[in-house]
Amino acid sequence: MGLFNRKKADEGPGEAPTPAIIADLPQMGDQVAASLSAHSQFIKRATCQRCGSPKTLRSTTAYLYCDFCGSLIDYDFRIANADTNAGITNTVFHRLMAQVQPQLDQALTARDHAAYRQLQTDIFRQWVQLCPQAVSPRAKSDEEFRERLVAYFAECATAKDLDPAQALQNAQMQTMTASLARVPTPDGAWRVAGPFFPMADMFRKQMEEVYAGFAASGVAAMDPDDPPPGVALRMEYSTFCQGWLPHLPPEDGERLLREFGLTGDYTEVVAQPTEDHSCGGCGAHLQTVIGARVVVCESCGRSVDIQSGAVPCHNCGAPLNFPVGSSHLACPFCQTQNQRV
C-alpha cells in the first residue's frame, strides 16, 4: 500500500526507513503543547474485575494488567500516544482507512462480509505494526497472539459496521462528530466547540449495544487477552474520554468522566514494598507487589508465574520465574534448557 518512504541518504546502515504514514507525527517521548501526558508520578486508577485488586504499580504499556493476577483491566490512551495529546494512534488508523476507503464503501454497500473483514484485517495488521505501543506488549513477540488480536479487531469492526441495526447510529455519529468545531488556543492546542455532549451520550449508548452484541454473537470470545466481562467496554470508554479530555475545559472534562464512570481516573503513585523477579521468557527485570500470583511482563507480554517461586538456572544460577503453562524454557541469559518439576 506504499506506506514506506525510500531510504534517506543520511540513514545509517541497517536502519529501517520511517513509515511515510507517521513521518510527520510526534515520535515516542516527544512533548507537545498542552500535553495531557501520563506523567511518571501518576498511575491510571483501576480495579481488577477478576480478583478485586487495585492497580498500584505504574504501567509502561497502554494495556493495563492486574498487579496480582495478570488479568487485563483497562487501557491508557495517553501511554498509547507516546506521552502526547496528539491522538497519534487514531490519526494513523484513519490514514490507513483513507487509503482503502473506496473499497470499504463498496464492501459495505454490497454487504460483503468477507471483503470487508479482509480489508479491516489488512488495516489492523499495519496499525499494530506502526503503533506497537498501543496494544498488548505480547503482540511484539508472540506472532500467534498478534494475529489473533488483529483478527479480533477486524471482526469487531465487521460485526459493528455491517450490522443493519448499527447503520443508522453510525451515520448519526459521523454527522454529529462532523458538526463539532476546533477552536485554536494561544498555547497551540485546540478546544472542541458545538454539541459535544449529545455526541458523547450517543457514543456511550451505542457502545453499550455494540459490546452486548459482541458478547451474544461470540465475537468477544475471540479476544486473545480473555478479559473479564465489561473490561473491553471500559477500555472503549477510557480511550474515548482520554482522546477528548485535552480539548475540553476542565469543568467539561470532569463532567465527561462522571458520565462515563471514570471520575478521578488518575492517582499519584504511593511507594510500597515490592519484590524483584526475572521473566523466564525474556530475562527482563520484574518488580512485583507483595503477594502477586501472576504478572504480565511488559517487555515480552508473557504471563509469568510469580506465586510458584523462581527456579535457578542449573547452569548460570539465574533465578527464573517460568511463564504460566511452561515447564521447559531456555534460560534467557545463557540459553541452557531448564525444566520445572
Write up what this structure looks like.
This protein is an alpha+beta fold and 341 residues long. It has 2 domains: 74-268, no CATH class; 274-339, no CATH class. It is built from 10 helices and 14 strands. The chain has helices spanning 77-80, 88-99, 101-110, 113-130, 138-141, 143-161, 164-178, 196-217, 231-244, 250-259; strands spanning 42-44, 63-65, 72-75, 181-184, 190-193, 266-268, 274-278, 285-289, 294-296, 303-305, 311-312, 319-320, 328-330, 337-339. The strands form 7 sheets. It has a two-stranded antiparallel ribbon. A two-stranded antiparallel sheet has the order 2-3. Helix 4 (113-130) packs across helix 6 (143-161). The termini are far apart.
Quick description:
The chain is α+β, with helices and mostly antiparallel strands and 341 residues long. It contains ten helices and 14 strands. The longest helix is centred in the middle third of the chain and has 22 residues, at 196-217.
Number of domains: 2
List the total number of helices: 10
Low-confidence stretches: 1-15, 33-40
What distance separates the N and C termini?
50 Å
* Major β-sheet annotation: 2 strands, antiparallel
Q: Strand-and-helix sequence, N→C?
A: EEEHHHHHHHEEHHHEEEEEEEEE
Mean pLDDT: 85
Adjacency order of strands in the biggest sheet: 1-6
Shape: globular
Our Rg estimate from Cα atoms comes to: 21 Å
Structural class: alpha+beta
